[in-house]
User: Fold Chemokine-like protein TAFA-5 isoform X2 from Vicugna pacos.
Amino acid sequence: MQLLKALWALAGAALCCFLVLVIHAQFLKEGQLAAGTCEIVTLDRDSSQPRRTIARQTARCACRKGQIAGTTRARPACVDARIIRTKQWCDMSPCLEGEGCDLLINRSGWTCTQPGGRIKTTTVS
Assistant:
C-alpha cells in the first residue's frame, strides 16, 4: 500500500513538472527573451578610415525592474539603471578581462585600454 501511494505521489509530481514546463514554454514563445537577457539585433562595421574601425550595434534586452540595457565584458547586458543615470560607465565593467576602463572627460562614454596600448573608445548616444 505504501508503495502504491509513493508511486501516485511520484506520478503527480512528474505531471506537475511537465505542466510547469509546458506553461513556461508558452510564455517564452519564439522571439521573446528571458528576463535579464539581451541579444544583438544588428552589427555594422565601418573600416573605411585608416587605422580606425567604427562599429555600431543594436541590442534588444528584456531587463528586470531597476535594470536597463548596457554593456558588460564587451557584450550587451542588463545593468543597474543607476549606472546609466549617473553616467558611471566603468561601474558596469564594459571592458574585456585585462583591459583598463576610463571615463571620457565629458562622460559621454568610456575607453578600454589593452595592455599593448591599443585603445577602444565607446560613446553613448
Summary: Residues 9-24 have pLDDT under 50 and may be disordered.
